[in-house]
């Protein structure tokens, strides 16, 4: 029903739901840690829309209800206000946001609301608040029984349990203890432990372990060696090398700290020395993709190579394409060349039938002039059976051939003639390609690459590449070190040490991360010296490792650099046989020194590689990899640097380091010389340090040691430290037990939690069993201290609640909260106690059950103690005269609800431990009974406060309902109801601003019941009024339903339309009907009535059909069964009255009845009755046949046995034509007898109250019919 015209000056439209809710949910405690403690309770809330564990922030919608918040598609959990123990609340009314009290709420918004979504299931409380308001005792008085159940005589806290106070300090200490265990509930994660990326701690320095200092004489000779290397450098410098001689000399002057005069003198002296003799090392490795010269598609290639001196260089112009070759010049060219001396020629073996030959042959050529000499190489296809190598060797032995100007083919022919036994022939080899490489272009560091083969002329056809390794070295050096027989290996070692020390000093202050990157001059000088000294790659790798590893022990280097040196050495280890014995022994000594240094660092693992420092942990990882890499070289040494296996050495070092670390902690925190009470705080710190160390061991160190060294670091460390701390704890407990005090019990409680955490830590690691630990059974001696501490907890809880109540003003703690400060303190106390129990996790099930029972009873008593204090507090508050909504009462109601949820959740946390003799996760029966009794008492307390809160609104509600009833029919319905709706809107806005959701629902249900009862009373007080009167109340009722439903944000429709609503709605519906409609409704209700118990009043079998030809209705009463025994003999004398109803449809038809069947409950009638009525009248909606079964009594009035109604609309012949025209068509129908229900009686009463003639005639006729039946009987 919509609005009926213009509204009042307020323009209130009541035909739709009234928007009266909006807001947001906020936190009420600013301390993040306290919010973290209370947030654990969110897990119990599973309502839809409660994001993040039961709460969400609602957006304010301009057209939404100012109390319930947004109504478009959002569903809110019914428990969201208590999910945070009352610290999260619905928003204020818009006009209440700035001022908590005293402001008038906003009027109804204009316009119709949006579509209303369905609401989630809400709390369904009984609608009996009105009776509680009328009959409940005063909030200031309690009966003895109720006072006893709510612990009105709760004992005061024991003054002997703890020093009296406000409990704040105790719970603050308890918070610190619990907070300490927050990170111990799960296995540590690596990313959590690594909190710092600062530089790693400096490693120890021992000058005796580093490089040996050089004597002045050694420095001088080394300086000379370095200058000689630079001044006589040969070859091409790479792009990363320094080719400036002056820059290199200046750098050496800095390294050796010489004055300019000394430097110039040394340079001049070295320049006058004899130049070194050079030689070229050539390794012919392989060739590929050569031309096929033989008929089989292959070739038989071999290489002929030699040094082409400057005198043998071609004198032809550069534009000529002819090139030098080991053969006679081309006749077509007409030119000739100077011959190449035969002693400069070397030849490889012939590789038969291949285009990709592999030779791997090495040659050494003396170089006369580095700047002009060239290396020349030819590749030929061999076509003779004579060994060319052997022929060339024999040819070089012929004295007369030395210096002869013969070309290569002539030399080959002579060699073959002298070396072979057969007749000589002119055999011709095929040319496959050549190479010409100037010596001056060979890089200083050597060259290892593929060279593309070149033709001798444009007419030559060649293809393929040849792989050569070239290195330019010196064979004779005119230096002091060389003359004394010092090898290039030794001189390079000394030079590298000097350069490394000089370079590292330049990297300060963060020298520990230096990766050994040398400057350009240093790298150039070392490259020159290594090449000139003919050091192999393996020798260079060995030298760099030896010098760097020694230097690292006094000046830390990056372990990645050292690992790279070991990998470089491993890559060339196949050349290990080339190392001399003294070089191998030096390498073994360096391995031994480094491994000893590394094991020393592992002993002090926590000092030099702290688990919280990511940089240090990475250095540890690289150190372990270096140690493992050392062991890979162990089988290659005849003199083994390791006495035992590496993992055994590491294990021994770790064990020793663990003990040293623990002893330092023990001596600093709890030395045994102190008395036991003084050692207790230190032992707590020691146990905490051990736990943190084990966390670091598991999260950081264990994976490193296991993956790299296959050492079980965590097991080794855990067993060692656990045994040590357990031993210390047993000793301390033995000393403290005879003289236990509450202060000691508090310390032992904290110590036990840490020891239990250590024990659980081991058990939480997969595959670990805690039964073999030294801490197993440690809980037994702690039990007396635990019991004593729980007593202190009980007393401190009461003192904390008492102090919270004392300072409580029964006002919200801040603008966004709806409870007072004492409830927040109580909720936090219970949250801490619940977390305490989880942390305690007492291992003995029987003992745990006893401790849990005691703790649960203490919490129940503390909760009742709090409510009693709260009651006394509110009793002492002066009441606000005429204030319908009392903010102190609202705060109390919210406090009770918050504490009920907090205590309930904490008590449910005291479930059966595993193996305690009951279902795991369920409460023991005594504790369950205690919990249920506590919840019932707190629910009763909440209902009582709700009743007192709503009782102040009873008078106003009745006044506004009376205003609706007295409104004249001339005004519109919405105008008549507007004052009531405005009053409710204002009061509910205030209530919503002051109550949490659960309590608001309680108040809404109480107010709804109040309104229904007030309207029923108004209807009962007004008789014989107009239909507009009832229409006005029907409009008001529908408007109130929409108002309280609030688009799904208020009470659910099924709850609103139940109970008293049904009775009121039925009365209003009947009052709106006309007399005839009311009479028809009277019979329709009979037709709709279905008995709940089908056989209680018996059954009646009938047959009914319409005879169209005669225009009459035939009704057969066949038989009845299981009737009620209404006579003293246990039987009845039943008869059946048959009548057509309602009377105004059949005004000329009289009722008929069957014969009386004496003394039976199963009468058989088989009687036929005819009623002459038109078919149209039978088709009317309310037309029916009413069968009334009566018990005939001779000496008194007849007794009613039951009735049944049959609608005529479905009778054969009325709804459809009669099949076959038979006289008795239709099947028998079994009707279940019943008694008239309340709705039928109410319709009759409604007719009795009407003064019109038709209603009075109908009632009178029913009365006469009853008298007539009695008279006939």
TrEMBL record:
Bias kind Pro residues: ranges: 106-115
Keywords: Cytoplasm, Endosome, Exocytosis
Subcellular location: Cytoplasm; Late endosome
Top-level taxon: Eukaryota
GO cellular component: late endosome membrane; plasma membrane; presynapse; recycling endosome membrane; secretory vesicle; trans-Golgi network membrane
Transmembrane segments: none
Domain named C2: residues: 259-421, 1096-1222
Residue ranges annotated for the MHD2 domain, each copy included: 974-1082
Region feature (Disordered): 95-118, 139-165, 313-340
GO biological process terms held by the UniProt record: exocytosis; positive regulation of neurotransmitter secretion; regulation of dense core granule exocytosis
Entry keyword Membrane: no
Xref: Pfam families: C2 (PF00168)
Listed Low complexity bias regions: 148-161
Sequence similarity: Belongs to the unc-13 family.
Name of this chain's protein: BAI1-associated protein 3
High-level lineage: Eukaryota, Metazoa, Chordata, Craniata, Vertebrata
